[in-house]
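[Meeting: bench + compute handoff]

Bench side (C.D.) handed over the final construct sequence. Compute side (W.E.) agreed to return the predicted structure before the next meeting so the bench team could plan truncations. Sequence as handed over:
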Amino acid sequence: MNVYEETQLILHKYKIQANKSLGQNFLVDDNVIDEIIRSSNIDKQDLIIEIGPGLGVLTNRLLKEANNVIDKLSQEKNISIETNNFKDNFKETIIEEVSNKTKKNKQDIKNNELDRKKLADIVFLNRAEKEKLDGLTFEYVVEEIKKELEANQNLDYQYIILDVPLLFESKLDKLCDYTIGVIAPKTEKIKRICKRDKLSKEKALQRLNSQPNDEFFTKNCNTVINNENKEETIKMVNEIMLKLQ
């Protein structure tokens, strides 16, 4: 079975559709996957952290090339999507408990997946409901991340990097030797949220106001990166990497 046929099977089985408004698409060309693997020069000793694994077609190939592959997005953002790499009972538990915790009927869950827009309208307008949802997510995601860290901590890696939006809230910062916060001007954040999620400025501001402000990260992180200008951001990242060597 080629990757195109595999993708069609997963999409049909789990009733998944790309969100055209977000420009989502799927990798369905074996030749492209081969070229990605070839140009990456991966060997068995590499630790691969895959951000945004999608349906996992590239993940499957990465697992053949490296002994250690961690895909983070499937542990958090896509916990409601089931592929052969995810546990059926995990997905069912998430859907059931999110329905209970947000006090919404299951009609707000379509085709066994979360209606993210309706869920966002609930949690970004009600701090208590957001804390409930965060608590549910932490219960599963944090435990999985801890297992991955434990499995890799004795291997000869110079760095293990966690990309965690709620690092301090989940208390995962306690496991880190060094923490880096990424900040940006408020107007820039609103513009990016509007563009990424196709939201009005009002809704973007609601989401932004539900998150810690930049002062929080400046106070709690070892260092912060001001992600306003691409060139300056790259410069700061390089300086941090040199500092950590």
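W.E. noted at the follow-up: The chain has a mean pLDDT of 77. C.D. will use this when planning the next construct.
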